[in-house]
Amino acid sequence: MSTTHDRIRIHTGDITKLDVDAIVNAANTSLLGGGGVDGAIHRAAGRELEFECRMLNGCKVGDAKITKGYNLQARHIIHTVGPVWQGGGKGEAELLASCYRRSLELAVANDCRSVSFPAISTGVYRYPKDQAVHIAIKTTGHFLESSALPEIVVFCCFDEPMAELYRRALSDLQES
Ligand code: AR6
């Protein structure tokens, strides 16, 4: 039987290139595109993505919405809106955990066997990377304990130092 941590993978590279059932987008509340990973996903998916996003009426911080993947290999894009870091006293940790939970719930509802997440809120939204990574790993690990889907969750890091933070957080999870 595979354990929870066997179902979590860490990858360094561009999330738009991944062949998974769903990739997660670190969007903003408008869902109409932006910079960072959001811009890369909209460029790679093509203009039709924006048309579908316009129909969704935005998304609240901590929530998630799903669209088709269009020109991506991924069948779906799960758009979630992370919190802007404001020092930690504005419920940021709970909102970030909620992004992971809501995205995973949508993945399950759409029969996704494999899902990839970027490091939500750690770019333009300035969430401290080590804290964000711990929340990502802990929330996902907890979710997978009681759900057979997704079978695999890939944390896609843009650079190697970020991947190292994930590896450390994953080994902390194994030890706890
Ligand atoms: N693949 C994987 N990871 C990436 C990629 C990529 N192609 N590009 C960037 N990253 P950010 P946020 C990493 O700023 O902090 C947008 O304008 C990046 O190194 O994309 O949640 C939205 O519209 C960082 O670690 O998202 C919102 O307005 C992580 O992805 C706002 O930015 C997240 O960085 C959201 O800010």
Instruction: Provide the gyration radius in Å.
Output: 15 Å
The portion of residues assigned to helices is 25-40%
Bound molecules: ligand AR6
Strand order of the largest sheet: 1-6-5-2-4-3
What kind of sheet is the major sheet? Answer: 6 strands, mixed
Strand content: 15-25%
What's the number of extended β-strand segments? Answer: 6
What would you say the CATH architecture is?
A: 3-Layer(aba) Sandwich
Content-based structural category: alpha/beta
Q: How far is it from the N-terminal to the C-terminal residue, by CA?
A: 19 Å
Quaternary structure of the protein: single chain
Per CATH, the superfamily is Leucine Aminopeptidase, subunit E, domain 1
CATH fold topology: Leucine Aminopeptidase, subunit E, domain 1
CATH class: Alpha Beta
Low-pLDDT ranges: none
Round the mean pLDDT to the nearest integer and report it: 97
Q: How many helical elements?
A: 5
Order of helices and strands: EEHHEEHEHEH
Notes on the structure:
With 176 residues, this protein is α/β, with parallel strands linked by helices. The protein has one domain: Leucine Aminopeptidase, subunit E, domain 1 (3-Layer(aba) Sandwich). It has helices at 36-45, 47-54, 92-109, 129-145, 160-175; strands at 8-12, 22-27, 64-68, 76-81, 114-117, 152-157. A hairpin with a 7-residue loop joins β3 (64-68) and β4 (76-81). The protein is globular. The protein starts with 7 loop residues before the first strand and ends with a helix. The mean pLDDT is 97. Ligand AR6 is lined by residues 14-16, 26-28, 34-38, 40, 82, 118-125, 156, 158, 162.
